[in-house]
Amino acid sequence: MKQKFLYTLLILTNSLTLFGQRYSEIKNYEHYSIFIENDTINYHTYAQKSIDSINAIFLYVQGSSAKSLYQIKKEKGSISIGTTVPFEFSTIPDNYLFVVISRKGFPFSTEMDKPFPIPKSYFENQTLEYRANQADLVINDLYKKYNKQIDKTIVLGHSEGSDVVAKLGTLNKKVTHFGYWSGGGNTQFIDFVTFIRKDVDKGKITEEQAEMKIDSLFNDLKDIMSNPNATDKFWQGNDNSYKRWSHFSEPPIENLLQIDKPLFVAIGTKDQAVTVESAYLIPIEFIRHKKDNLTFKSYPDLDHGFEKELENGEFKDYWNDVFEDFLNWVNEN
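RE: above sequence
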């Protein structure tokens, strides 16, 4: 469930007023650290207005991106900003305290185009359990600061972050609203088989080729599960260790069914990283277990990052549209 997109803003000399404001907003984050035995968790908060106006915590859990939250480059009167945070601050309500957590071993921001080797500590802690415990500790820390003024605690996970949110739901009872975006219900492993079978149906490969691909896939998965904590062996990219894959192999539906608070699941029908069939397992299982706290929405023709491919090959971004649906749902629930 690799996060497929990186939002980038190019700040040109003749646009310094508009994008200079964006850079100023980034500088207005507040930065905090939680110190526990043998670990430090760094998280960051942003408020549109004064902290006194805040009555909701909004934690965004990003997908699998071995990067800093922001990558910044200043050169010859221009500023370039890359980020794995896909929100425009203007879309976040004034009463929300926006919260993001740095990936293990990464600072809040790095210099764009300047190599930043992935830290060993990142691979050592590249697990579902670690990321869910991070989010749990951050929420608890925020409650120590703002408990008396908080009415809602909202968590939204995208891609790998959706699995984290599902697991978090089994740990933290302070969360009032759960967002589960671009995630499946079954183990991530099944997606690879399903996509191969789809290629057969589309005539892209033959049955014989599919059999060879699936046999090879099974051998890879057996090797991963035989070395479940290996941080020096990788699959599907050099930033996804065997440890990551084995520890994210848990079917999220097992955790989602334990959540009794309002849950908003969103999937694009043309998601290229998670099969829509896996996502449809979620409403099926909620119906089967007679649970009524789920809102499930599929978005026709949108991909993993809620973009739509146009006829000219370009992509139109619908992230904000999905986010608006989510905000309306939060207000109604």
